Amino acid sequence: MHKWIVKENVIEGYSPANHTGTVNKRLISQETVGAKHMEVLIGTIEKNQGALPHAHPDLEQVCYLLSGSADVEMDGEKGKLEPGDCCYFPPYKKHIFTVTSEEPARVLIIYSPPYEEKPERVIR
């Protein structure tokens, strides 16, 4: 097996802090492939669940919706995501992500630099 290819089905899921009904899998990271400047996750989020209001200092985040639908909010500005849509959350901007579809949503999440679920990288 190549060290630079990651299979989702062998990655253990976890429930991220400040999220409800969410299971993430860290696909690209220091641990999986040695990535130092980015982190890529796949998230599965249940209906009416998702990210509670929070921000990340010195960290950029992109969410690409693979399936399902979601409402997003950043600094009081609201939007809707359908499959194929993505959104960008800049550092220090409070944001919310809530699934609106009946079926769970699948979201590809990219952080730069890596978030790694470190408490100092989130502001509630």
Automatic annotation (TrEMBL):
Keywords: Metal-binding. One of its GO terms (molecular function) is metal ion binding. CDD domains: cupin_RmlC-like. Residues 44-111 form the Cupin type-2 domain. This is Cupin type-2 domain-containing protein.
